[in-house]
Write a structure and sequence with these properties.
Structural class of chain B: mainly alpha
Largest interface: A-B, 62 and 52 residues
Oligomer: heterodimer
Order of helices and strands of chain A: HHHHHHHHHHHH
CATH topology of chain A: Fumarate Reductase Cytochrome B subunit
CATH topology of the largest domain in chain B: Rossmann fold
Strand content of chain A: under 5%
Strand content of chain B: under 5%
Strand order of the largest sheet of chain B: 2-1-3-4
CATH superfamily of chain A: Transmembrane di-heme cytochromes, Chain C
Largest sheet of chain A: none
Helix content of chain B: 40-55%
Number of helices of chain B: 23
Number of helices of chain A: 12
CATH class of chain A: Mainly Alpha
Radius of gyration of chain B: 23 Å
Chain lengths: 224, 468
């Protein structure tokens, strides 16, 4: 079982993930239409890029009005995403596995740091869940897929935490960890998790919109 | 029975196409919306056409916005409807768009009449397309843009508020948002020039003068209800020594078609103005103090008219930009003794701040004309809609909704401590007038033109002879 999930299934998952996100990006860019969107994407590309850069800068970093208005939620969100991306990519165990398979490697973070990061992700996930269940504003927007997506995103970290700490049933937890990680990878192109790449697409698009059309060329970018 | 048959004989008021004849328009105007909304209740949805429309116009930008919305509710307190309606979760922008356009896309247009009426009531009665939410969404999802798109879908299916259907029809028939003809316009210009030439010798309103520095375009209601606005603009151009003109054909810069979601109507209207630019070849166009008209003719218009650069045929500016330029270059000089002394604040229309980037312009103007300027909070791009934007001012069906959201502007104004508001927008001007009528808070408001006229220094050579 371990050989299967960590071997062919892993390859398939990574392939679906990579091809999937590339396809999503291509689909997004191809679907942009200067007439329908009413943005001169190509004719004013320079102004657009400036607007896009501003848009990404203000939202990849917490320098925006929404963070100032909702510091707790936005703080948790930033931390959650930061850990979610960093921990799995730079975890020693993951890097070693990749080095063994493909003979490439990169810097790693100490296991203790990764461990804390995992806890941050789990606690943040619980915070999102409670907020979704109790805040009437969030509740009215919530659909079943919001819970499923949250579960898909949290599962690899919960199982990884348990496996790392060698709780009883290590082998099963390890397989569950690998499987849930693969489910997440495969789910990214096909669910709301596609915001993994579409966040960038959307932020670049709205940045170009403001940069090209809505006052960007008047010398004042939007005050995100 | 005879009555029912009689009703059946009447031509339908609800249609899936714009009104393009006087007869149809007359029927709609006479109806006042009663039969119109009754008819709408049983008006069928053309599902096939709706699906085709979605397939060809709902592309990756909007589909992505609908898909990646995290349902986080951060857009809630950015929306004036949510804030003014006691934080009702049903007024959260995300909820409003997901439950209308979101469902429409999910069901691929397979929806019924009640669903479309709810879409209409949401797109016009619960959103002014102020685009404020889009500035605060971490994913950059602009629900104002999506509601604009939804309005287009609704219009194409016949589910559009009565006044918006009329407004779009006016543009098709008169090339103006009201029944004002080119002759009416030229007559009004002549009348205003005659009325004022005694006070300002040499004052003219040149019609169709080629190669002028400025081609000035206006809002039809200035002809119909506020001709003095045209006189004031003429006087200020005269005092500033501008070489200007108004186009006979192509004088109207507003677009109720935009509010209605009648995209063909938008194109039809804006091309009329652009033809005047091509015909008269002015160096620039200046549009009157109107927010949506600026957005329609200058910001969105080129796209409707298929101009790939997104630029108008000649560079175009809002009236506030011309005013600032005239003040900075000294074409207009202010008598310091006549500056506004009482506390004063400003209402910038969404359509030139979030959609045009002009907020610095008005603040600089205020520094020339006011001694005690109190900026509104939140200000600049973060300012709230007046409450009457996106056509909401004019739709009887949503009068209560409009009056409720005006509370936000009322409180914003009162918090500044100023009782006088400069309003360089026809739509905001109306909303603030109605706000005072509804809430009676003791405020006064004005366009920029009359304020400037009270304080500009009239050069000696332009003074009437008997004054010398």
């Amino acid at each position: 079982m371990y050989e299967f999930v960590s071997g062919p299934l892993a390859v398939i998952s990574f392939a679906v993930f990579f091809l999937g996100v590339v396809a999503r990006i291509i689909w997004y860019v191809k679907g942009l239409d200067w007439r329908l969107d009413r943005v001169a994407y190509t004719k004013k590309f320079g102004a657009g890029i400036k607007g896009a850069a501003r848009s990404l800068f203000h939202w990849l970093l917490p320098f925006n009005h929404t963070t100032a208005k909702h510091p707790i939620f936005m703080g948790v969100t930033y931390l959650f995403h930061l850990c979610l991306i960093t921990a799995p990519i730079f975890l020693i165990a993951h890097v070693v596995l990749i080095e063994e398979s493909w003979n490439i490697s990169w810097i790693t973070i100490p296991d203790r740091v990764a461990d804390y990061m995992t806890l941050v992700i789990i606690v943040a996930g619980i915070f999102f869940l409670i907020r979704r269940l109790t805040d009437p504003n969030v509740n009215i927007l919530t659909t079943a897929s919001d819970y499923i997506v949250l579960a898909i995103a949290l599962a690899p970290f919960v199982t990884g935490y348990i496996a790392y700490h060698q709780w009883p049933g290590y082998n099963s937890w390890l397989i569950a960890h690998i499987l849930s990680g693969e489910i997440m990878l495969v789910a990214i192109p096909f669910t709301k998790l596609s915001h993994f790449v579409l966040f960038f697409c959307s932020r670049i698009q709205i940045g170009m919109d403001y940069g090209i059309k809505r006052g960007g060329v008047k010398g004042r970018g939007i005050a995100w | 029975m005879a009555e029912e048959l009689g009703r059946l004989d009447l031509p339908p008021l609800v249609t899936r196409r714009p009104v393009k004849t006087q007869e149809e328009l007359g029927l709609l105007l006479a109806d006042k919306g009663v039969r119109y909304y009754e008819e709408m209740k049983t008006f069928p949805v053309d599902k096939e056409a709706l699906k085709k429309n979605l397939d060809s116009t709902c592309k990756s930008r909007i589909r992505t916005w609908l898909e990646i919305c995290s349902h986080c509710s951060l857009c809630a307190d950015t929306c004036l409807f949510y804030l003014a309606n006691d934080q009702d979760p049903r007024q959260i922008p995300s909820y409003k768009i997901q439950s209308t356009l979101g469902q429409l896309v999910k069901r691929k247009g397979d929806v019924d009449t009640d669903f479309m009426i709810n879409c209409m009531d949401t797109a016009w009665g619960k959103c002014t397309c102020c685009n404020r939410c889009g500035m605060y969404c971490p994913h950059g999802i602009d629900m104002g843009v999506m509601f604009g798109y939804l309005r287009g879908l609704c219009f194409s299916q016949g589910f559009v508020p009565h006044e918006m259907k009329i407004g779009s029809g006016m543009h098709w028939i008169y090339n103006a948002q009201m029944d004002v003809t080119v002759e009416d316009f030229i007559d009004t210009c002549e009348w205003m020039a005659e009325e004022n030439e005694d006070y300002y010798p040499g004052l003219t309103i040149p019609v169709d003068k080629p190669d002028a520095d400025i081609m000035y375009t206006i809002n039809a209601r200035e002809v119909k209800h506020y001709p003095q606005d045209i006189a004031e603009a003429a006087t200020l151009f005269h005092l500033a020594g501008e070489n200007w003109t108004v186009p006979g054909k192509g004088w109207e810069e507003t677009s109720l078609a935009m509010f209605a979601g009648d995209w063909e109507g938008c194109k039809h209207q804006v091309e009329w103005v652009y033809e005047a630019m091509e015909r008269l070849k002015p160096k620039r166009m200046v549009v009157t103090e109107c927010g949506h008209a600026y957005r329609a003719t200058v910001i969105e218009g080129p796209y409707w008219a298929n101009i790939k650069t997104g630029d108008t045929p000649v560079p175009s500016m809002h009236y506030v930009e011309w005013v600032l330029e005239a003040l900075e270059t000294g074409k207009l000089k202010i008598d310091p003794a006549k500056k506004i002394k009482e506390p004063v604040t400003i209402q910038d229309p969404c359509n030139y701040i979030r959609n045009g980037g002009l907020c610095d312009v008005t603040r600089k103007i205020m520094s020339y004309i006011a001694e005690d300027f109190r900026d509104i909070k939140p200000s600049r791009e973060h300012n709230f809609c007046c409450g009457g934007g996106g056509g909401l001012n004019g739709i009887g069906r949503y009068r209560q909704e409009r009056n409720t959201v005006m509370k936000i502007k009322r409180d914003q104004i009162l918090a500044t401590g100023a009782k006088f508001i400069v309003v360089p927008c026809h739509n905001c001007w109306d909303a603030i007038r109605d706000l005072e009528e509804v809430y009676k808070v003791g405020i006064t408001w004005s366009f920029l033109k009359p304020i400037l006229l009270k304080m500009v220094i009239v050069p000696d050579h332009l003074k009437p002879k008997d004054e010398e």
